[in-house]
Amino acid sequence: MLDVNALKAEMVKNGYTQAKLAEEIGISPRTLSNKLKTGDFGNKEMEVIINVLSIKDPMSIFFAK
Predict the structure, then answer these.
(1) Are 63 and 1 in contact (CB under 8 A)?
(2) What is the pTM of this model?
């Protein structure tokens, strides 16, 4: 289960808006918004997010309990 708040905190920490992150991933801001609600990110999308935001512990964000 996606920890949306932790992911949004990483975005803020790195100066990313949803629109800017969506552009980095190659999806529309609306699609990113929907994915944040559902937690339905593909492996490549997660990899890009992890790299762009320099997330040190991706398991705690993308596979939170």
Answers:
(1) yes
(2) 0.91
Q: Per the structure block, which two tokens stand in for 58?
A: 């991706």
What does the pLDDT look like over 6-55, one tens digit per residue? 999 999 999 999 999 999 999 999 999 999 999 999 999 999 999 999 99
Task: Give the chain as a DSSP string.
Answer: ---HHHHHHHHHHTT--HHHHHHHHTS-HHHHHHHHHHT---HHHHHHHHHHHT-S-HHHHHT--
Contact 1, 36 (CB under 8 A): no
